[in-house]
Structures are given as structure tokens and as C-alpha cells.
Amino acid sequence: MLDDDKPCGVTAIGRCGTCRQAFCLTHQAHELNGWGHPGLCAPCLARGRREAEERAATERAARQDAYRLLRAEAAEQTPLLMAQLLATGLPGAVRRHRTEEGTPYFLKPQRRFRTVRVKPDALPPGNMAWMLPDLDTAGHPLVPTRMETGLTHDGQLVMMSGGSAKICTSAENEITLYELLRRALAGPDEH
Ligand SMILES: [Zn+2]
Ligand SMILES: [Zn+2]
Fold first, then answer.
1. How far is CA 8 from CA 3, 12, 19, 26, 30, in A?
2. Of the residues 70, 80, 125, 128, which has the fewest C-beta atoms closer than 10 A?
3. What is the pTM of this model?
4. Residue 51 C-alpha to ligand 1 middle, in angstroms?
């Protein structure tokens, strides 16, 4: 095996299937658990790992670029699409309901909840994240929770059911909204 292009001089125990060079025990490719590759030298293993890391970094950068572009596109297009969709009068709007605790019925004590009609809503665009009490920790702290979300005639995003909450200001929500608006404008046949 070559060390800076000079043979290390130690008796070879195998030959690398990649670079065809003979390697000694020291120059054999070893995994972290000590297992030695029968037909791979240490430099080739190191090069392979380096190349895999470079490929992964390139792919990561490409994904980040695509995400940045999508975010910029969403920021630019969302207000326009929102205005376009509101201008349609939201023909697909469905009624939004909220369940509230009501007076127990005398003869039907199990019926403790009644449904209260709130107001018309958009065809629910889809799921977006809202800051809601974490049920696992008795309501604290508020955690992002995906809820069915709709658009009202005055351009507000609202949860389709449930009380009031704050919608998350996240890049994910921005992109979700953009994609939902595009889909809503494309019509029910194009999903
Ligand atoms: Zn090799
Ligand atoms: Zn060697």
C-alpha cells in the first residue's frame, strides 16, 4: 500500500477491489466496530465516505435552494391568490360549527353538548398548524397542532371547528397556505 506514493513495506493481506492495490492490516478498510473489509483499502473507504458526504451536502443545498425559492414565490403569490379566491365569493364555503357545552337535558343527561352554528366559511383549504394547548401536559405549553383550516369571506384564516387560537407564523404554514390557495383556485377537479 502506498503512503504518499511510497509502499508502507508491511506484508500485504489483501488487494483492494477498487484501486487494485495490495494492502496491509493497517491500510485495510475498517468499520468503527473493527470489522475489516476483505477487498477494500482504507484510502478508498475514506474517499467513498467523503464523496457520499459531498453528494449529501450538494443535495441538501439544492433542497434548501428549492425551499427558499418556494418561500419567496409563496410570499409574492399568496396575497394575489387570496384576493383572487375572495373575489370568487367563495362558492364552496361551508358552514362552520363549534361544539359548546350546553344545559343537560333532563331526560337525556348524556346529551351535554350542543352544536352552535358560527358563520359561513370557505371550502376548508386544508390543514394548517395552530398554537393549541398540549393535551399531554395539561394544556401547557401551547404547541403547533395541525387543524382543519378555512378561509372566511373577509380573508381570515379560521379553524373549522373549535374555539379561538393563534395560527402559527411558520414557513411551513406560509407554504401550505400558498399551495392550498393554488389548489382551491384550480378547482375541485385538479388535485
Ligand atoms: Zn483501494
Ligand atoms: Zn500498509
1. 6, 10, 16, 9, 17
2. 80
3. 0.64
4. 14
pLDDT in tens, the chain (191 residues): 555 556 788 999 999 999 999 999 999 999 999 999 999 999 999 999 999 999 999 999 999 999 999 999 999 999 999 999 999 888 888 877 666 555 555 555 555 566 666 556 667 768 999 998 877 766 568 889 999 898 888 888 988 876 678 999 999 999 999 999 998 888 765 44
Q: Distance between CA 117 and CA 114 in Å, rounded?
A: 10
Neighbours of 188 (CB within 10 A): 9
Q: How far apart are CA 43 and CA 52, in angstroms?
A: 14
Gap from CA of 159 to ligand 2 centroid (Å):
67
Distance, CA 51 to ligand 2 centroid (Å)? 23
